[in-house]
Design goal:
The chain contains one helix and three strands. By secondary structure, it is of the alpha+beta class.
Length: 54
């Protein structure tokens, strides 16, 4: 299981954004979000808007 997970992570594309970079993302449930990249974890990022982190 560990080897399978390690290979899956190695094949996953890295996130091309840097912390603090301004980006716009489309959320299928809540619409478009614009903000700064606050969190990078694997292939996911967290956007910091004026009132929340998504």
């Amino acid at each position: 299981m560990f080897v399978h997970q390690a290979l899956a992570r190695a094949r996953a594309a890295a996130v091309p954004y840097k912390l603090g970079e301004v980006v716009a993302g489309d959320d299928p449930f809540n619409g478009r979000r614009e903000g700064l990249v606050a969190v990078k974890k694997g292939t996911f990022i967290g956007l910091q808007t004026t009132d929340n982190v998504f």
